[in-house]
Design a protein that fits this description.
The protein is α/β, with parallel strands linked by helices and 481 residues long. The protein is built from 14 helices and 16 strands. The chain has 2 domains: 139 residues, 3-Layer(aba) Sandwich (Rossmann fold); 283 residues, Dihydrodipicolinate Reductase, domain 2. Bound molecules: 6-O-phosphono-beta-D-glucopyranose.
């Protein structure tokens, strides 16, 4: 760890992300002795409160959210926290803020913008104009997702911020990249000959990427109704996962080479946009969504998306990548299923031949499963399908760090590997903008689904039309009982 004093400033300090994600992550880092002792975390907010009130609020959140909460650790941790009241939309507030920052006498500054993207240019320009970036040490700028609303707005933001901070000092967050099992994709792929040798169209029939959420939009209706699942989840998290699965082996397993390979995948990704026949792109909305707080009662915003994509590169010719994500579904889970082809081996007529499956479980459980066929004991030649499974999160002594712990530490250490580069973000917006342009009004194609279901039937029919189905882990696990 760089042993350098730093001030970590958070814009949007009274937002949910700061309370529920950043503070617990900072607390865990502190508890694990991984934070610099002389670091100061300054949270900015409009609301009229002082540091001790803010610390109390954080304490309440941590007591509920963190199972290993400890009073005396919190007291030491909270000494790092300061609340600073300002309206970041007001240019004049930055002059005073600069004076305050100077009084902290710290050469290094990190600015974390946990605000809506529309404020990224304004905040960045004010920081520059009011000399808050004029320090002896380093300045790093962190931008929460969503990075823009569409390609045009993302480009505008990027032009401004890259001019002010420089690409090497910009950290665009996609918190999925900080998740343990997402980081494990490269290892599973490239460190195992049994997978790396067959990672192509000759052996793989299709790839399924599922990120389901149990909760609806909760109190984020205002934001979500403008975004929808396509912008909120597919443009970033799902495309990032797909890119890691589909990229060519990079020259080196380093940051730059991986980013370059991911960009090539995203630029060569085609979504099958056959809306009329419901084959390729499915939009869904959960029943009751229009009654959610701050949601337009006539909203056509999708809370569910399923799509079929093809990666236009020789390795993946003809291999569908099925993606699906949605809110208010039957459970929260994220997983990648790689379904292998079934070859011409004669299967006994009374047994079904199950394809080999490689499953990378991302959350809530973390693990890797491999499904293989064996002979049923005592039968002559009947097939039986079994799981070889590794459940990382089943070990009671193991607790994965939250994605934000990893990402915050990387920011403090100046490591940009787990953050998205502009070319990736741009290519992903190009793709999503194409989808949005093709179907500007989604209403005729918006299928409703009951809360707690596994999404609209059309998402199942899409695979059925291809002679396939979504793999449920429950089904796989039952066989394992
Ligand atoms: C965020 C989305 O990026 O990811 C949210 O804005 C979503 O809508 C969240 O709920 C899901 O993250 P996780 O880590 O809970 O799977």
């Amino acid at each position: 760890m760089e042993n350098q004093k730093v001030i970590f400033t958070i814009f949007g300090g009274t937002g949910n992300l700061t309370y529920y994600k950043l503070m617990p992550a900072f607390y865990q880092l502190f508890l694990g002795g991984r934070l610099l002792n002389d670091m100061t975390i300054i949270v900015l907010g409009r609301k009229d409160k002082d540091t001790s009130m803010y610390r109390e609020e954080v304490k309440d959140v941590l007591m509920k959210k963190v199972s290993n909460f400890n009073e005396s650790v919190f007291v030491a941790f909270s000494a790092m926290l300061q609340y600073y009241q300002m309206n970041f939309e007001k240019a004049e507030d930055y002059t005073e803020f600069n004076t305050y920052m100077q009084s902290q006498n710290c050469p290094n500054r990190i600015f974390y913008l946990a605000t809506a993207p529309t404020f990224f240019p304004l905040i960045s320009e004010q920081l520059r104009d009011k000399k808050l970036l004029d320090v002896k040490g380093y300045v790093r700028a962190v931008f929460e997702k969503p990075f823009g609303y569409d390609l045009e707005s993302a480009e505008k933001i990027n032009d401004i911020i890259s001019d002010i901070f420089g690409e090497d000092y910009i950290y665009r967050i996609d918190h999925y990249l900080g998740k343990e099992m997402i980081q494990n994709i490269n290892t599973v792929r490239f460190s195992n000959q049994i997978f790396s040798a067959v990672w192509n169209k000759d052996s793989i029939d299709n790839v399924q990427i599922t990120v389901k959420e149990k909760d609806g939009v909760k109190d984020r209706g205002g934001y979500y109704d403008q975004a929808g699942a396509l912008r909120d989840m597919v443009q970033n998290h799902l495309i990032q996962i797909l890119a890691l699965v589909a990229m060519e082996p990079p020259k080196r397993l380093d940051n730059q080479s991986i980013k370059e390979e991911k960009v090539k995948v995203i630029q060569n990704l085609n979504v099958q946009m056959d809306l009329e026949s419901h084959n390729g792109l499915i939009f869904g909305q959960y029943e009751g969504y229009r009654e959610e707080v701050k949601v337009d009662p006539n909203s056509n915003t999708e809370t569910f998306v399923a799509m079929k994509c093809f990666v236009n590169r020789p390795r993946w010719e003809g291999v569908p990548f099925y993606l699906r994500t949605g809110k208010a579904l039957d459970g929260g889970e994220a997983k990648i299923v790689i379904e292998f082809r079934v070859d011409g081996f004669d299967t006994p007529s009374n047994t079904e031949r199950i394809p080999n499956l490689l499953v990378i479980k991302i959350q809530p459980d973390e693990g890797v499963y491999l499904r293989i066929n064996t002979k049923e004991p005592r039968s002559e030649s009947n097939l039986m399908s079994v799981n070889l499974s590794y459940c990382q999160s089943c070990d009671i002594f193991y607790k994965s760090p939250d994605a934000y712990e990893r990402l915050l530490l990387d920011i403090i250490n100046g490591d940009t590997a787990m953050f998205t580069g502009w070319e990736e973000v741009k290519s992903a917006w190009e793709l999503i903008s194409e989808v949005i342009d093709k179907c500007p009004t989604k209403s005729p194609y918006l299928d409703t689904y009951p809360k707690g279901s596994d999404g609209p039937m059309s998402a199942h029919n899409m695979l059925k039309m291809d002679g396939r189905h979504w793999w449920r882990l429950d089904d796989l696990n039952n066989d394992f009982d």
